[in-house]
Amino acid sequence: MKKTDQQDVELTSVLTCPECGHVETETMPTDACQYFYDCKGCGAVLRPLAGDCCVFCSYGTVPCPPVQLDGKNASCCGGNGTTKADQAEIP
User: What highest taxon heads this organism's lineage (predicted)?
Assistant: First the structure.
């Protein structure tokens, strides 16, 4: 689903740590891709899951702003939806 109005973009997302279940409301960056997030509960470093462009798309209640605007094929990294982590796995 594509959105056409920048005002429809939600900038806060609740991240849930997969290690300890800690939840934290965070403001998403609009000008950068957030690859890493340090859990404030247990200290685990969260990284995007395969196929996701950032930690908000993997662990948040709301996907990152570019994905909200352009759908799942968008990437906050400006590429083709492939993260640096994904590129490391490509033979």
Answer: Bacteria
